Sequence to fold (470 residues):
Amino acid sequence: MDYDVLVLGGGIIGCAVAYELSKYNLNIAVIEKEFDIADDISFVNTSIVYDGSETSNNVMAGLEYIGNILMEDLCEKFNVPFRRIGSLRVVNDDNGVIKLKEMYERAIRRGIDGVYLIDPDEVYEIEPNINTEVKKGLYSQNVAIVAPYDLAIAYAEVAFDNGVNFRLEEEVLTIQNVTKGFRVVTNKNKFSCKVVINTIANEIYINEKGVVEEKDSEDGINSFKNMSYILLDDNYEKKLQRIVTKTFDKDTFVVSTPVLNGGSLIGIKSIEKTSLDDNLQYASKLLKGLNKSNINNLFRESYDKDSIVVDDQKVDKGYISVIGTHYGKVTLAPAIAKMLCDTISSNLNCRLKKNFIDKRREFYRFREMDRNEINEVIKLDKRYGKIVCMCNNVSEGEIVDSIRRPLGARTVKGVKRRTGAGFGNCHGAYCNEKIIQILSRELDRKFTDIVDDSKKSNIISGRIKEFKDI
Fold:
């Protein structure tokens, strides 16, 4: 066998699974079809860490509750930004009050502490800047925000340092049963393994003949495609300090989330496609004094409402799949990874490594350091004294480190997502060219070979021919 375990998909769940399994004496590989890992995470590096009180699905609630508990310790260990800021859900009609009471009673039945049904005065005491009438509020002090891309990278780096092989730009073509395992064929290689963990089972699955097939997009995958986001500058003065959700009806809500590196993210979910003016109108029902000048960026993403199902019906044959997607997959990832790891380690009867390295390699972030710390780092490496991104205060040293680290950045977007460069008010107008230059030098590639995030996304198509004579 080439590997004991093959993990298909290098998203947040795949990276979490690889990390948990790397604690054991197993030969593991992760197969990812994209240029980089964690491509399933939004470029706004902030996600909500739920506590299980908001969902009607009891299984998802249990996984969220476990994931919430595990997340804080993981982030502290890996030096990943994590803030437990609490969440507030508000309503201003009688039907909404009934719904909040149902959610509160459900949370109590589930044994979730720190959830309170509160009156308007308490709501305004917690969040005085809310721009809406309130009849009732549901407050949870357990909910947090995390940097999900940083968490996925940390998972992957530690797994890599403990021997996991990450095979990028490889797409799975077929999976077939063989004697005591599987044969997995990609667009580049053929592998044999004892166990397959398929974390992209919403895209592919193994049929009765043991062959991988495309998953029908209508089969159990029902996503609302109209989730619009407004990213607000940090200079917006009336921002909310907690995660606040205002529900209009069963299909429409607006949520305000503080962003870890400053600013606020406003999400508007609607079954109808909304314009910028529509989104501002919705957001203004929650936020005071909001106008177009406060907007830093706009984007749309699907709002995934479905449950994630861990299908272990074929676990006796060595095949487990993670089917579906979920708005809280970042919260679910640690819990799902633990569950899968316990199953696989038991089935393979493997032992924990004695020399497991449960620590992420050190790194520096200038925007989080004081002047004395910065000067000490510059003495070690002068490149940390050259600021590349003026908006977010990112140095050349940080960018070089992001490229040279385990599973280092190979694209412009990879550098940006690892360091925060290019996500300021200028949107990379000042630093894009410098990032390309650094990538070209560190990877020993031509400028024209540097891509934004994937194949055929070259930023510079060619050089302008230079003439001696005009």
